[in-house]
Structure formats: C-alpha cells, structure tokens
Amino acid sequence: MATKGKSGSKMGKDGMEDLEAVNLAADWSDISQGLRKDLGHQLHSQWIKPIQVGDFCKETGTLNLFLPTEFSANWVQDRFADRLSLAWKIAKSDIRNVKIQVHPGRRKLPDISLNGDGYGGGPMAANDRNDSSMIAVAAGTIGEQGFTSSVGLDPSLTFAAFVTGETNILGCNAAQRMAATETPQFSPLYLKAATGQGKTHLMHAIGHSYLAAHPRSRIFYCSAERFMVEFVQALKQNQMIEFKARLRSFDLLLVDDIQFIIGKASAQEELLYTIDALLAEGKRLVFAADRAPQALDGVEPRLLSRLSMGLVADIAPADIELRRKILESKLTKFAPLEVPGDVIEFLARTITRNVRELVGGLNKLIAYAQLTGQTVSLQLAEEQLTDILSANRRRITIDEIQRTVCQFYRIDRSEMSSKRRARAVVRPRQVAMYLSKVLTPRSYPEIGRKFGGRDHSTVIHAVRLIEDLRQRDADMDGDVRSLLRQLES
C-alpha cells in the first residue's frame, strides 16, 4: 500500500477496499445504535447485533449483510429488511439494495446427529463472539475420526487472553475452577454480566481448558436460541428420545444467553430435566446471561432454582483500571506501532459501556491510521471515533450525583446544602463532593457552590478524605464503587 502525505494520501486497490470496509463499519455502528433505541435491548441483541457487514458492489448498488444461520437470516429478512434497507440508503446514498443472507464462508450449522454415532463432519468454522446462534460440540471420540479438541470454540478466547481486574476476578476464578481437573465445589456455574463484559469469553475458555485437562470428554456449547431451534427440530421429526439421550451424554454443558429461553415452556422443561440428569451424574454445567437468575422473567420456578443452586458469579462493568489493562494488553499485537499514553487514557476514560466497544474503538483507530498513513494521536481518536464516543459520553450532573447519593444513604436531599455536622449527614455529603470531582469537569469552587456555598478548601478536604478512606475502609470503597456503577450505567 502506497501512501502520500497525511491528508491526500493515494492508496492502492487493497487500501481503498480496506478504507471502504472501515467506513461501512462506522456507518453500521450508527445504524445499529439507532435500531437498538427503536427495537429495545433484547430484540437488538438477539437479531441485529449478530449481523456482519459484507461487501458492497458499486455497479449494482448492492450491500451484503451476513448472519450466522439460515434461521436468523430468514427471521431478519421477514421482519427487519425494509427498516435495514431504508437506514442504509440514508447513511450511504449509493446503496440501492440490501441483501440479507447466511455468510458464504460459514459452514451450515450441523443439526444434532440423532441417528449417528457422533456429531460428524469435522470441525466447524470458528465462531465469533457476536454470534449468538452458534452451536459447538467437542467430543473425545467421534466414530473413527479420533479426538477433536476445539470444535466451534474460538481459539483466541482462552484464560491466558482474559485480562482480570477487581470487577471480573470472581467470574474468572470460578470459571477456572469449573474447568480444573478436580471436581468443582459448585455446579452449575452461572455467569451474570452485561453485554460485552467477557462472559462469552470465559465460556469458551472453560471449554478449551476442560478439553486440555480431559481430552476424552464431550462438550456441548450453544446459545439458548440454538438450543430451542434444535429442540423444535427434534420435536417435529419425532426424535425427542434420541435428542434427550444425546444431550445428556455430555460431560460439560455450556449454554450462553440463557435469558432468551424465557417463555418457552416445553424447552424450559427439557432443559430442567437435562440439568437434573447431568447433575445426578456429577457432570458440569455453565450458564451465562445478562441478568441474575431472579431477574429472568417467565422462567418456571423449578428451573429458576436449578440455575441458582450453584454459584452465581457477577461480572461487573470494567472499571478504569481494568479498561487500561485491557487496552495495554491489546497493543502487543500492533507492535511496533506506537500508541501514545494519552490516547490510551482517553479511550479508557471515555469508552465505558463495555469491553467489546473499547477494544473495537482501539482496533478502528489503529486500522484507520495504518490505512491512511497517519500517526495515532488524541486528535485522530476524537475525529474518527465520534460514533463510539458519542454513544458512551453521558454527562453526569452534580444534581444527579446528589440525588443518587441521598437515595443510597437514605437521607433528605436538603442535607447536601445544610450546615448539619452529624456524621450520618457529613459522610454522604463528602462522598457526593468526591464523586462530583471524579465524574464532572467542575472545579472545586463550582462544586462548593452546589453544596450550600461551601469554600473550595472544604471540597478539597472531602475529596482527599474519601480517597484515603477508600484505601483503608473496604465498606467505604464498596459504597463508592456501587455509586459509580449506578451513575455510569
């Protein structure tokens, strides 16, 4: 790829195609965010998020959109084709047609082989983290094919590649224990985390590690959606006995996005019986969802109790320290490209919604710099990541902080400006001052004026005091972390 200068660079054909792909990805990010607001989180996560933007033919004006399965492609085509087509035409005027189809490079998902000795056909194409419909089976013995070690598991999603911090260490340790040689003290393991915080990464890592420790084991990995699809197929084909027998022959069962099984009574019942059968034989089970078991709507009480009976490991949103560590760990693959420290700090502080967006922002920035021959800088980050930054940038006000702190400590809002010196009032007021300095661009005098006209020295004292207490007092640190999560969510 040849480049000339920083602004009017001339690129070869490959470079132009790569830049076009980057631009399409940026357009898709905007469109996807808009659809998320229109459709809601659940519909967007299940049907829109797995879409991959394909190639664009300028001659015909056709843009290809790919989905991982025929089932999901047909569903999106029937329900969202017109909306997707209109959104793309608005975003890019030369797009005249949008074609929704199964990715040609992705092999058709195998049905569960109810009549054979295994789940044959060789390894599947590696799935990506955004594919909520993939099914993966790893078996120690598959007919005469010998052992398979990583069928359907993303080779990059291992424990070694998982960056840990205070917010996710419990989930990571529990996942490692579940994959260890010795029998775990708990089963099932339930990983609870918001989108893009690492629960799918840990599920793949469990699969890799368990196979390494138990090379003759049989693993079943799928999304709840895919479990329901396979269940319905077996039901229609009058093969439920075979389906049940095959499903219960596994040593490790991994079911992702369990929230999508809600409301399906027959599938819930079958999953319940499968859990009971596997637990009775000492097998290992791992479930993942974006909410706690108790928050799952429409789940049969018996199934809810099974999901809750082991360990529920909460993976909280990554704090700024973990976001820095994740970015720094990703930089190694871009060496010797230099990314300044102020850019890393800017991304870590600004892209806070989830880890996937954080890493995606870094990848997009570096790709653009490489394709255009520009140097990675803070200015370039602000210019090229406007879509991601605007989605993450939410202005928190001091009024909002005061209201949240008062609700947390159960005191009246007027106490934020009062002259009372009772400890039950002073400490929450100091916490609110500290959060105001951390979460807003306001100066010490400005913050003081919002707290009953207090002097800036009072605010400085409160900020330093809370910083010190967080180091010495676990309860105070826990209170502040909880408040930060509420305010940044």
Keywords:
489 residues; alpha/beta; GMP Synthetase, Chain A, domain 3; Rossmann fold; Chromosomal Replication Initiator Protein Dnaa, Chain: A; 3 domains; six-stranded mixed sheet; three-stranded mixed sheet; 10% strand; globular
Fold and architecture overview:
Residues 397-466 form the Chromosomal replication initiator DnaA C-terminal domain. The chain has helices spanning 13-39, 41-48, 70-91, 169-179, 199-213, 224-236, 240-247, 265-280, 301-308, 320-331, 341-350, 355-372, 378-384, 386-392, 398-409, 423-439, 444-450, 456-472, 474-488, and strands at 52-57, 62-67, 97-102, 135-139, 189-193, 218-223, 252-256, 284-289, 311-315. It is of the alpha/beta class and 489 residues long. It has 3 domains: 1-105, 2-Layer Sandwich (GMP Synthetase, Chain A, domain 3), CATH 3.30.300; 135-315, P-loop containing nucleotide triphosphate hydrolases (Rossmann fold), CATH 3.40.50.300; 398-488, Chromosomal Replication Initiator Protein Dnaa, Chain: A. Strands 4-6-7-8-5-9 form a 6-stranded mixed beta sheet, with helices on both faces. The two termini are 42 Å apart. The relative contact order is 0.08.
Q: How can the largest sheet be summarized?
A: 6 strands, mixed
CATH architecture of the largest domain: 3-Layer(aba) Sandwich
Report the uncertain regions: 1-11, 106-135, 139-151
Task: Please report which band the strand proportion falls in: under 5%, 5-15%, 15-25%, 25-35%, 35-45% or over 45%.
Answer: 5-15%
Q: Helical element count? A: 19
Secondary-structure element order, N to C = HHEEHEEHEHEHHEHEHEHHHHHHHHHH
